[in-house]
Amino acid sequence: MPIGPVLGVVTIGQTPRPDLERAFQSHAQGAMVLVRGALDGLGHEDIAVLASRPTDYPLLVRLAGGSTREIPLEEIHPLVSERARSLSALGARAVVVACAGGFPDVACDVPVLLPGRILPAVVSAITRNRRIGVVAPIRSQVPATLRKWSSDGFDPVVTWVSPVVPAEFEAACARMDDPTLALVVLDCFGYDDDYARAFSTRTGKLVLAAQSVTARIAGELVRG
Predict the structure, then answer these.
(1) What's the predicted TM-score (pTM) here?
(2) Cis omega (within 30 of 0) on the bond before 16?
């Protein structure tokens, strides 16, 4: 077993994910960060089968070679649960699901942080204005994102931009120029601190990123 506190992170795609390791390690100093992928060990044919299944809640996942696929949340959830339990068995004090989607409960022996529940709570705590901007990573995820944030009690304006396609950045920022928006939520773990700063500078709005907000909270749970 590791010496000292351990933070487990489950990405919904595949490892390696050095970007997630860096993001969480920066707020979990003194702890060991272990990242596992829900799709680790699956071949291209297995992933193609998962991607072919119908869904109204597609998730953008990053594969080991850097490519991306859209996989139904319903297919990802049981795989995430398996990885969470394996991290608990390795001594993780807490496990983060590195996705801001509307995940159901994840059965595990240690606390599991679900960003899809953390972010609405944080937004509610810092503003009474329920009209917010929400940015999803793919166009096909916009309807599910709209339903989720509406069910969380907000009046969301939802747009989309891929975290890895710079050409889409300006259009997403323009959509968030609405002066009635209290703030903007970057609702995907692909948006890092640098992306959030750039988005805030371009729009002039307060921006909360799922990755950095969750990493800060996770760091509190594994303080040595």
Answers:
(1) 0.94
(2) yes
